[in-house]
Amino acid sequence: MEIHELIMLIYVFALAIFVGFELITKVPPTLHTPLMSGSNAISGITIVGALLSAGLEEFGISTVLGLIALIFATINVVGGYLVTDRMLKMFKKK
Is the full-model pTM beyond 0.70? Predict the structure, then answer.
């Protein structure tokens, strides 16, 4: 691995940390519990990493693990949004 590739990976990792932190802090507490919003933000970051891993040109164990991580993280994010939608429906007037 060349130094340019390593720097790019560190840059993407730092950017993912920053975006994830911003997402967690911007979610109003009336919409999510802190645990759910943190889980959704972390799963969103996992989706980005899994897409990078699963989209490699050479097929190997990292591609398979990236695909598995992508499936599980997507299930987690969709489930979080479904729970949020259900919770918001509880507060709507009939």
Answer: no
